[in-house]
Design brief:
The protein is mostly helical. It is built from six helices and no strands. Helix 3 packs antiparallel against helix 4 and helix 4 runs antiparallel to helix 6. The longest helix is centred in the first third of the chain and has 23 residues. It is elongated and about 85 Å long. The termini are far apart. The relative contact order is 0.10.
Length: 127
Amino acid sequence: MTRNLMFALMSATALTMAPMAVSAEDKSGENRAEVSASTESSPVAKAALAQDLFSHATATKNAVAALAAAQIMMSIDMTDVEHDKEAKDNESAVAEGGTDASDAPADAMAMLAAAKEFTVVILQLLD
């Protein structure tokens, strides 16, 4: 009886695994793992990731997350570009306090300052 049961279990296992082996050998279509690994994140995507991480860091007062966001921002090659007149007018309005600048993205230095502040708060709690 035990021999028949073992044979039945082995047969059932073989029958269920056979289609998996056939589907694994299918080489049609593009390999998504290779495509995603070979593409490098754009500077805009990196900046967006850093801003999202920094937003999380400020919400949770997490110094490590703020440092990671700053490191991502510092890894992006930034270049100054010429802005058109409308953009310059908007920048001067923000500088004069005429427009709400709270939606402006944080730069790496602001992220580092926040990380330092979060660390000081943690050290004060430990004393």
